[in-house]
Structures are given as C-alpha cells and as structure tokens.
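Structure request: Right handed beta helix region, Amycolatopsis ultiminotia.
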Amino acid sequence: MTADRAGVVLSGLDLHGMLTVTAPDVVVRHSRFTGDGSTPWAIRTDGAGSVRIEDTVITGDYTDAGISYGNWSAVRVEISEMTNDGAKLGPHTTITDSWIHDFAPAPGAHSDGLQLTEDVGDIVVKNNRIDIGTGEGANAAVFLSPDIGSENPSAGPIRIEGNTLGGGGYTFYSVGGMHGARLQDVTLTGNTFRRDARFGAIYPTDFDAHTVSGNVYADGSSVPVPG
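Returned structure:
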C-alpha cells in the first residue's frame, strides 16, 4: 500500500504487509500492522514522504524493522514481538510516549528497539518504555552508531530523555562508527534503567555522548557513566 497524497489521514488500517509513504504530512492513526515475514517494514518513508503515526500497534515478523527511515514521528505507538529491529532512527525522527517490548529475534538477528546506523540527527526519543527482553538475539533497547560511515552529514542533535530502558545485552549503546564517523551531539538525560540487561546498562567501549546526567536505576541509584 502506498500513501502518495499529501496530508492524507489513514485511520483504522489493519494491514498485513507494508505502507510506503511518498507524500509529505501523511497521518496514520488507530491502526494495526502485522508482519508475516514478507516485507522489510510496516511503515517506511521514501523520497519526500513524511508521516506522523499515532495510537498504532506494530507487531510480528518484519525482515528489517517496524518503522523506517527518516522524517517520521510516532506518538503512543506499541511495537512488540519483532523479529528484527523496532524502528530505524533516520534524520528528523521523533518517538514519544510509546511502548517497545518483548521481542522475538529471528535466528542470527541482533535486534534493537531503536537503531541508528548513520551520522544523522534531529532525533528525539522521549518518555517511552523500551524493554525488548534478554533472550538470544536481543541486542539493545537503543543502539546509536554511524556503522555505515559518514556519508550523510549530521542533521542536528540526538536527544534520549525521560525514558524507561531495559533488556538487551547492554541496554544502551552510543559508539563511533566506520572510518572515524562520530555522532555529533548526543544527550542522554533523565532516563530510568532496569537491571535486566545480560551485561550492563551502558556499553562501556568507545562511549560517545556529549551530555549525560540524571540517569538512574529504578531504585534511584545512579547509572555508571563510562569514562
């Protein structure tokens, strides 16, 4: 299915497969997307496409991620039982007041709740609950690394604020990428970490964040910051 009319509002969808958004200012609300392994994504933007996703459920087997790639916002979205990643954080993306949980990684997957793999920005992750579980293949609640290099310039800051985060091997990664690529402006503030990661709250190697403060465990004790 393709949304190719600017400003169209799509409500009450029950889609097995993928919605491709090629027009600006599309709205998806009160909908459900179920993956059956036949498509890479539930919702993806392409070209000039942008989309706001509200009060929507994304679940099941998508071969890449539930949401991809840039120019999207999600509010009160539930993403669960994913076999790969929950959502790709491309440029100009926001996710707030959402619940990402209980993944079922495919064999060989390294599943992240939210994943960024380029040197991009203008990203807000705020007031969400993200706990993908600790089973085989569950990698991180939030993974930030320009792994594919620095082909794309930073579009602005990255803000990870006020979330409850858990699961994974390490719950939170923010590291440098290939060929010296670095994220330009990462803030990690006011988050609450569960103590259920296999190895620890924050991946300690090559930690890359400019502002880190107020991150605690559920009992109020401070989360150690890699030095």
